[in-house]
Amino acid sequence: MKGATGESPVYDIERVRVLAEERTSLRGSLLEILHAVQDTLGYVDETAIPIIADTLNLSKAEVLGVVSFYRDLRQEPPAQTVVRLCRGEACQSVGAERLVARARERFGLDIGESSTDGRVSLDQVFCLGNCALGPSAMVDGRLIGRLDEATLDVLMAPRL
Ligand code: FES
Questions:
Q1: Is 103 in the pocket of ligand 1 (CB under 6 A)?
Q2: Are 82 and 5 in contact (CB under 8 A)?
Q3: Final residue of a domain: which of 38, 69, 100?
Q4: How confident is the model at residue 23 (pLDDT cuts 50, 70, 90)?
């Protein structure tokens, strides 16, 4: 992620430490921390791994293993536009996988990938609370229902 000057902003390690310490007693604390870090800082930078590992008394490999396993956790800064396709059960039953395939075939993006110019990222979510109007997606914070391939093209193409 670049700032107005074109330089990458500094990743706020102190913020990671605070987010981690606030969540050590929660059930599933590692995932809670990782999601909080991503929600706050946009992604889980490699410099966050040892901080989180120390806070939870885990090895760096254990933390990195979890980050790598969950495709909705990013290890790179997000793109300008983030398209989150819902792959929850209800959306799967009405064609969510067709949209995942479309993004792959037409734009060369798999879930968890960003375009080479960093303008669009494709992510997945598991239910946006819009099941009755699936397949659903969230594009730059905007909820979209009854998404089909043609609309996905319109949403993604101008950004690529
Ligand atoms: S499963 Fe997609 S919105 Fe609920």
A1: no
A2: no
A3: 69
A4: very high
Q: Residues 46, 95: one domain?
A: no
Beta carbon of 138 within 6 Å of any ligand 1 atom: no
88 ligand 1 Cβ < 6 A: yes
Do 102 and 149 touch, CB atoms closer than 8 A?
yes
- pLDDT: is 119 or 130 the higher one? 130
pLDDT digits (tens, 9 = 90+) for 45-73: 999 999 999 999 999 999 999 999 987 78
- Nearest C-alpha neighbor of 23 from the set 36, 13, 12: 36
Q: Is residue 38 one of the residues assigned to a domain?
A: yes
Q: What is the span of the domain harbouring residue 97?
A: 81-159
- What pLDDT, on the 0 to 100 scale, is given for residue 53? 98
- d(CA 139, CA 96) in angstroms, rounded, equals 15
